[in-house]
Write a structure and sequence with these properties.
- This protein has 139 residues and is α/β, with parallel strands linked by helices.
- The chain folds into 2 domains: 66 residues, 2,3-Dihydroxybiphenyl 1,2-Dioxygenase, domain 1; 72 residues, 2,3-Dihydroxybiphenyl 1,2-Dioxygenase, domain 1 (Roll), CATH 3.10.180.
- 27% of the residues lie in helices and 35% in strands.
- The protein has 4 helices and 8 strands, in the order E-H-E-E-E-E-H-E-H-E-E-H.
- Strand 7 and strand 8 form a beta hairpin.
- The chain is globular and about 45 Å long.
- It starts with 5 loop residues before the first strand and ends with a helix.
Length: 139
């Protein structure tokens, strides 16, 4: 199978504020941006060497009101406790609000943060499970 790259695209209410929040909170870099592309402005955040990035967009002619649910989660796994604690502190310093997770599973080994639009990010202090381990979880 070819290597896949993941883009998580989300409409936001304040493009610059979202960029600042996720850049500071997660230590991401601007890897692309666009203005007035068919009525949309956007920014893409990522890091060299990771096969995913976040895209935040804002429609200038027909604004979309973000409407995430409490279970609309971006989950990031950081197995090293020091790195996890540092990232959790960065999230608070950046302006995210720590919240209790709707699903209590995420509070066992992680912390959940919410941005100004209600999007939630879980910083999980855990190694990403191997595929065979995942299969056993759902039996």
């Amino acid at each position: 199978m070819a290597t896949l790259t993941l883009r998580v695209a989300r409409p936001v209410s304040q493009l610059e504020r979202s960029r600042e929040l996720y850049q500071s909170g997660l230590g991401l870099d601007v890897i692309g941006a666009f203005e007035d592309h068919h009525g949309f402005n956007g920014v893409m955040l990522g890091k060299a060497g990771i096969p995913w990035h976040l895209e935040f967009t804002q429609c200038t002619s027909h604004p979309v009101i973000p409407s995430p649910s409490a279970e609309d989660l971006l989950v990031l796994y950081l197995p090293e406790r020091d790195e996890w604690q540092q990232t959790c502190q960065q999230m608070i310093s950046a302006g995210f609000k720590q919240v209790s997770s709707f699903n209590p599973y995420w509070d066992q080994n992680g912390k959940t943060y919410e941005d100004h639009d209600g999007y939630r990010t879980v910083i999980q202090c855990q190694q990403w499970p191997q595929p065979s381990a995942c299969l056993n979880v759902y039996k």
